[in-house]
Amino acid sequence: MTDTRYDVIAIGNAVVDVIASCEEGLIDELSLNRGGMTLIDEARADELYDAMPPARELSGGSAANTLAGLSTLGLQCAFIGQVADDQLGKVFRHDMRATGIDFDTPARDGEPATGRVLIFVTPDGERTMNTFLGAGQFLPAEALDEDLIASAGILYLEGYLWDPEEPRRAMRRAIEVAREAGRKVAFTASESFVIERHGDDFRAMIDDGLIDILFVNESELATLTGEDDFETGFNAVAPKVPVLVATRSAKGAVASAHGERAVTAAAPVAKVVDTTGAGDQFAAGFLSGYAKGEGLEVCLKRGAIAAAEVIAHYGPRPEADMKALMAERL
Amino acid sequence: MTDTRYDVIAIGNAVVDVIASCEEGLIDELSLNRGGMTLIDEARADELYDAMPPARELSGGSAANTLAGLSTLGLQCAFIGQVADDQLGKVFRHDMRATGIDFDTPARDGEPATGRVLIFVTPDGERTMNTFLGAGQFLPAEALDEDLIASAGILYLEGYLWDPEEPRRAMRRAIEVAREAGRKVAFTASESFVIERHGDDFRAMIDDGLIDILFVNESELATLTGEDDFETGFNAVAPKVPVLVATRSAKGAVASAHGERAVTAAAPVAKVVDTTGAGDQFAAGFLSGYAKGEGLEVCLKRGAIAAAEVIAHYGPRPEADMKALMAERL
Q1: Which residues of B touch A50 (CB under 8 A)?
Q2: B6 CA to chain A: closest CA distance, Å?
């Protein structure tokens, strides 16, 4: 195995988050899937945007957010994802590069526009996401720089992007490239509906040993295993993946690695402002420790600290000096 | 005089703010005008954006921000300004309408794009603004809905927009329309450089009695009057305008109206995060009282409370429930 040029390379949605605070009642009024992520078409995106309170725009995307966290923590990162040649695409690319992430996938001409996620944040800080994938759903396998993928220690993939056909094919190819190069493959399940639609794929990948590090939350684990009981579900998957990380919101997180098991409590937060990015930053914190060879418990704690930082403000990416925060809180 | 359809109608820049936190050193490195507003062309905007840390986008524009504050405080508002037919133009229009402001100026086809302001916020919370006016500089006098202007109790104009020729002509026409309809004309000087370039215009308008309510800060007052001493400058202008409001940052504000004079201290702020919009929201708080016939001191206090709210978070428009905040703090 040659030296790594990047610590982590990710393939994910290239989207801009449009984030608004809203009253609880608006969620029902617009028939939104409270706390979840729903894929929507452009007409529904326009309809929801018309009904949305004033908003702020911040670059998002699950894997892209995780990379932003990793980059802030000092890791070398690269991103592959599809934006359109438009203003929001330029915003997304700027924010990736300004965070120190290499992102060279060419913009796609014509329609559809760069993807966007309309996020309604209720007074309890819970986010309800409505995603128009836009250009992102047309990420072609040809956009993969295979040398780049082979040069990264970890290939990180997001389940959200498993839904559209072209990116799914690209990600399958990327897994082959990474494994041939002897790299680790990390996968985040992203959302239960993805597992409902593609659970057979995921279970086969797990059984075939294609996934080295798997991130799930409680409901994704339940959907993946068909087990409502957390412990039963966790113990069913743990023997099949070298590293399993299960986040449990306010209840903290559990991980297993090669038979070892560790838990962490959630890190304290003065006030939950916006839970957008909590899982993404947990993954960033965890992987930043994993890439440095830290023990499982330290990796979990780093995840909890990163998640606590991001839910204390609007937006899915860290705003604090994360290296200093880790040094202070660990 | 007929009944008013709107409390306030404003003509102003239609721009999206691109706001990033940055280290102190970057201001010098990029040769920025610390704490000020600098007009830039598109090439310089691209150059500065490339050098900018990750950012968030929020709708801005001085008069538009003031309207957002007024609307949140329950006043009926309409806006006239020029966006392009692009994504940022749609963001700006959405945020105005979602705040309850009528904004029907048609988007302009082709180049340039919707204006944007690159805002670098240093650790002390001070904002350094770099404005590419974009489509905004081409607001034509023909875009004015004269019936609309005649129907509003107050016409509010921003000095920033006095610089480009077409909007200046539009604003001169709007003043005529408002005065013919017996309405009040409010004007914010915006920034010293505007007065350096157009001070003769402004002094003539003041002398001709075209301005009923004038908002200035200390340095604008000094540039307008040529007097470095605040009291001397204030007393030189006060007899010439029915209402004069001078903001003094942390030192509070002073106002005079028809010979009466009042002062207010700055309202307390736990931590200054981003001073963007401080003057705009001061004007909103003040005018919200003025429109209701409140006394001068109450108007000033309302201005101070609104300014304190906006500098405690990123972005130039209120995020709190402003009616509740006024009820609580007055």
Answers
A1: 94
A2: 21
